[in-house]
Amino acid sequence: LTAREAQIAASLCLTVVMGGAACSGRAPAPARAEGVILVSIDSLRPDHLGCYGYATATSPNLDTLCRDSVVFTQAIAHAPSTLSSHASLLTSLIPQHHGASVTRMVALARDHLTLASALASAGFHTASFNGGGQIDALFGLDHGFQVYQSPRPAHDEEAWARDVGADRFGTVVAAAGGWLDENRGRFFLFLHTYEVHHPYRPDPAFSTLLPESYDGPLPGDISIDLLERINAGRLEATPKDLAHVVHAYDVEIRSVDAALGVLVADLKRRGLYDRTLLIVTSDHGEEFGEHGKMGWHSHTLHDELLRVPLVVKFPGSWRAGTSLDAQVRGIDVAPTVMSVARIAIPPAFEGVDLVRYAGRGERPPPYAIAEIDGGGGGVRSQEWKWDRRSLYRLASDRGETADVARTYPGMAEKLRRIKQALVSEDENASPSTVVPTADLRERLRGLGYVE
Ligand SMILES: [Zn+2]
Q1: What's phi and psi for 42, nearest 5 deg?
Q2: 11 Cα to the center of ligand 1, angstroms
Q3: What's the gap in Å between 17 CA and the centre of ligand 1?
Q4: What distance in angstroms lies between residue 44's CA and the mean position of ligand 1's atoms?
Q5: DSSP-assigned beta bridge partners for residue 370
Q6: What is the pLDDT of the chain when averaged over all its residues?
């Protein structure tokens, strides 16, 4: 079937069965998306979500959405930090090829094609409501967006704490609703929030939904300073204290989830839900003591930082309730969007169209490249991870506890060569160094990025 035939088949099927998702689910491809919403919840670990198996009730609304979606259980981010990973999502290029970097203060070069610019060229209205910081327009991710709105950076952490509403996903969802009121026609919305990013400042309204019985010395708000003191060994934290830190993170997820529920209800009220491709993902995870740090990211390529949720609600809830266990990557998101929007995938995109894998069970490309911003890179397959000097056998050591590079020197060398081959195809052609404003420096500092 051609894409056009598949679309006709899907729409006929929907008409005959009166909107039956089961019928749409058997079609070879999803119906054409009239709207696309890409939601990135910064620092969100998949294993803290109900539909990924978490026992705490952090995500009732996302769990409902998962039942209408294809859930990718092994989605890999290309970097453990915000700018680098989002640039991969939006350009379908690995970090070594898009070149955007906070540690080197290099913005995404304007000559890279982005998902937003490709969709805008095809007539989509494009807008982003986001948390700024590492994805501030200064770093070039605004390319292709007609509206790119980030909160004004606060001058200091105290001011930011007073203005904490700006960091809530609910604020982003409200702004997106206002924008949808004024924009008819095909649209692309990129929504992002730092709500679950450290510092953890859980909204008390949601703490009552996830009660805890903690009576230790730590406050309800977990500041960057507190996490730094724990990580430097200057503050001794008991297992109960550490569980309290994780609880604060979980409460923030519950708050984000409530806003996600509002977004979905709003789409349904507008009659857009069935015609929209809605993707919920993240740019990286968060470490909770797996490799020595608490409430932290950016510093390793371990799975607690590289694994992200990827929930894809196709138009007509195509393949609803499917979960796909094969490894997929951040760079695969943009080609998938183009495919479901029925626009030719730009040859520059390095990822693949996940419709092929959700639809026909083909195996996606086996290797994912990841890189620490300002550090080294590695490569991950479903069975192995090579991380510069170390080799982990994920198939039998999911926690990456034992470096087996000496036991399997052939595998380490093979993965090193694969990484080299995937990375050396192209180098960033025109890096453009940027100088952040004083406000943006403060904003980055408030998010724990110290120069
Ligand atoms: Zn991030």
Answers
A1: -55, 135
A2: 38
A3: 42
A4: 9
A5: 378
A6: 90
